[in-house]
Design a protein that fits this description.
The protein is mainly alpha-helical. The chain has helices at 39-60, 66-74, 78-116, 123-129, 131-152, 156-176, 190-201, 205-220, 226-245, 247-250, 258-276, 290-298, 302-315, 326-331, and strands at residues 10-11, 21-22. The chain has one domain (10-62, 89-279). It has a two-stranded antiparallel sheet.
């Protein structure tokens, strides 16, 4: 039967042309493997995903230099200044690596979309025949939300980088007055530092990168109709929603964390759809059942759903538009 069961457009009243369609779907996010045609891109994406896992692990372990920075601010003595600098510098190197990795996401996502949204077959056929790439795309979506959640709950990231920049600037001023600030330690040039500042100043920096990469893909690939991209995103969101609504499909998950993975992917797909489609995800004509997805989220424990609901509230583009139905705004308490 394959990892993705064929979408069964089944009318609950027997009239498929006029009534709501119900989809019985199972996309095997746990075991999908690449076909020969997918192999090269799959390997490239796998390398990116390997780094993404390392970054999430490092973010979980990120402690920051709050103590050393406080001591350096309270006492201008050389010992405290040196200790703070020596603590902050390797942390900022990690932040630099995280930022540079966002460029890898910006490059790899359009390559995946070009495969999954091509006009040669329908979006549903893409999902059925390129399940390994669908799984990898889903993993990038999950990484995006995880990264941004960890960034939002780790204020030390911006504090450390701000202290670093202030120290560098002070060192340059002292250098102009004839004091050597130790230029060999300053490994981030001014232009890169500015880009990093903009990146970390955003509340959801990786989501911004992902959304912009998707929008840029739509703009630059005129040979692929916009509808192909939005329908692919919308169909994937429906797949996630139906899987989470169906206890029989949930029972097929072999790993407990798969359900939360699919929740994250579903939310990220709604957000991407909302950024890419001219009218967004919340209008009545949308290919995404936002009300159904929100209900699925609210049926989960708050520990699993609240951050995802907040992502819908605060990182979508069209939620506050006038033509967004009041019922959806009420559901999300906007």
């Amino acid at each position: 039967m394959g990892n993705l069961l064929r979408l069964l457009a089944r009318d609950e009243t027997g009239n498929s042309c006029c009534s709501h369609q119900k989809y019985d779907v199972f996309l095997d996010f746990e075991n999908a493997s690449p076909s020969e045609a997918e192999a090269d891109l799959y390997k490239d994406v796998a390398r990116v995903l390997q780094v993404s896992q390392e970054i999430i692990q490092e973010l979980h372990q990120y402690k920051g230099a709050a103590k050393e920075i406080r001591e350096a601010i309270s006492d201008p003595g050389d010992d405290y200044q040196r200790r703070a600098w020596e603590t902050v510098t390797p942390l900022v190197q990690k932040l630099k690596q995280f930022y540079l990795f966002s460029n890898d996401i910006e490059v790899i996502v359009p390559r995946i979309l070009a495969e999954l949204c091509g006009p040669e077959v329908t979006p549903t056929q893409h999902l059925e025949t390129q399940q390994a790439l669908v799984k990898q795309f889903a993993e990038i979506l999950e990484f995006t939300l995880k990264f941004d959640e960890l960034k939002m709950t780790t204020p030390a990231i911006q504090n450390d980088f701000s202290y670093y920049r202030r120290t560098v600037m002070r060192g340059k001023l002292e250098s102009n007055n004839g004091t050597d600030p130790g230029e060999d330690d300053v490994t981030i040039d001014h232009q890169l530092a500015n880009k990093m500042s903009l990146f970390y100043a955003n509340s959801t920096p990786m989501l911004k990168i992902l959304s912009e990469a998707t929008s840029k893909f739509v703009t630059e690939h005129k040979e692929i109709p916009l509808e192909n991209t939005t329908e692919t995103l919308g169909t994937m969101a429906k797949v996630c929603q139906r899987m989470l609504e169906n206890p029989d499909l949930i029972a097929r998950f072999r790993r407990e964390e798969t359900q939360l993975f699919i929740l994250r992917v579903m939310v990220a797909l709604i957000i991407l759809y909302d950024h890419v489609h001219p009218h967004g995800a919340f209008v009545k004509a949308s290919n995404v059942d936002v009300k159904g997805c929100v209900k699925v989220l609210k049926d989960q424990p708050a520990s699993s759903s609240e951050n995802l609901l907040n992502a819908l509230r605060y990182t979508t583009k069209h939620l506050n538009d006038e033509n967004t139905p009041k019922q959806i705004k009420t559901l999300l308490s906007v």
